[in-house]
């Protein structure tokens, strides 16, 4: 079992896992819903989320748990946030997840055109009974995430699930996170109280411990690289010469861009 907690809204990771036929779960259950006429949806109720009863692999099973803490393009709230829906594709081709999202968007477009109305951050669809329903987008952004300062779609209980899962690991790899979200940082600081735990950061440019974590500096490891570099630590023996050349080229371009930015600041 391998846990991935993502703060991204895109569905790229799902497409990659589908393409390579890697089993994964995202907390949602595959079962019939009142919205199967709209698109392929997995579901979870707000009560299940509050209780932490997500559909995930346990430690004795093989697979990836992919949990999106800030919502996603393919996650919607329905029935006054009593039910959460997550689109899924058939994995027969790259982009099948995106195609299902398009189905939902197309239904909304048809109704909006017909009735001459449009909602903000909501999609109009008819459920299997023909009733008009409102699917609320789940994307969560801004400086006050999980702080009860405005209405948000993704339940705060997901943050509790994240903290609980952290307790079961002693080594955390961080890729592409700028340490700019206070709710995530506070969870990490609480986890790092146990000095046996380690955070490994993959970042092409970082040179020092993130601000606010100085007291835990001995528990951090910094690797100047990105996601590809992380994957290559598992097995690089099959990488082609062409791919190696491309990686070196992109690294050079990235370094040159960073140098120009620094020169502009000075």
Separation of the first and last Cα atoms: 47 Å
The topology string of helices and strands comes to: EHEEHEEEHEEHEHEEHH
The dominant shape is globular
User: What is the residue-mean pLDDT, rounded to a whole number?
Assistant: 89
**Total count of strands:** 11
Question: Spans with pLDDT under 50 lasting ≥5 residues?
Answer: none
Gyration radius, in Å: 21 Å
Characterise the protein shown here.
The structure is a single chain. The chain is α/β, with parallel strands linked by helices and 266 residues long. Helix content is 32%, strand content 19%. It has helices at residues 12-19, 46-51, 96-115, 157-166, 182-191, 227-232, 241-265, and strands spanning 2-6, 24-25, 41-45, 64-68, 75-78, 83-87, 122-126, 132-137, 171-175, 198-202, 220-223. It has a five-stranded antiparallel sheet with strand order 3-6-5-8-7. Strands 1-4-2 form a three-stranded parallel sheet, with no helix packed on it. Strands 9-10-11 form a three-stranded parallel sheet. Strand 7 and strand 8 (132-137) form a beta hairpin. Helix 4 runs parallel beside helix 5 (182-191). The longest helix has 25 residues, at 241-265. The radius of gyration is 21 Å and the shape is globular.
């Amino acid at each position: 079992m391998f846990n991935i907690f993502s703060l991204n809204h895109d569905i790229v990771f799902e497409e990659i896992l589908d393409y390579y036929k890697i089993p994964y779960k995202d907390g949602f259950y595959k079962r019939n819903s009142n919205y199967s006429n709209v698109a392929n949806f997995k579901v979870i109720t707000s009560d299940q989320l509050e209780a932490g009863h997500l559909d995930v692999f346990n430690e004795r099973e093989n697979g990836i748990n992919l949990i999106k803490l800030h919502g996603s393009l393919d996650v919607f709230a329905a029935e006054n946030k009593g039910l959460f829906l997550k689109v899924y594709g058939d994995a027969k081709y790259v982009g099948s997840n995106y195609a299902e999202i398009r189905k939902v968007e197309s239904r909304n477009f048809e109704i909006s055109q017909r009735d001459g109305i449009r909602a903000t951050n909501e999609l109009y669809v008819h459920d299997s009974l023909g009733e008009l329903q409102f699917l609320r987008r789940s994307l969560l952004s801004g400086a006050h995430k999980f702080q009860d300062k405005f209405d948000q779609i993704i339940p705060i209980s997901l943050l509790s699930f994240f903290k609980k899962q952290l307790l079961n690991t002693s080594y955390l790899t961080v890729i592409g996170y700028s340490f700019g979200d206070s709710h995530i940082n506070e969870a990490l600081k609480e986890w790092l109280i146990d000095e046996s735990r380690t955070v490994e950061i993959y970042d092409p440019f970082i040179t020092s411990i993130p601000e606010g974590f100085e007291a835990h500096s001995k528990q951090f490891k910094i690797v100047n690289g990105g996601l590809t570099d992380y994957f290559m630590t598992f097995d690089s023996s099959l990488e082609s010469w062409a791919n190696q050349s491309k990686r070196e080229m992109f690294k050079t371009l990235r370094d040159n861009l960073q140098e120009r930015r620094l020169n502009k600041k000075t």
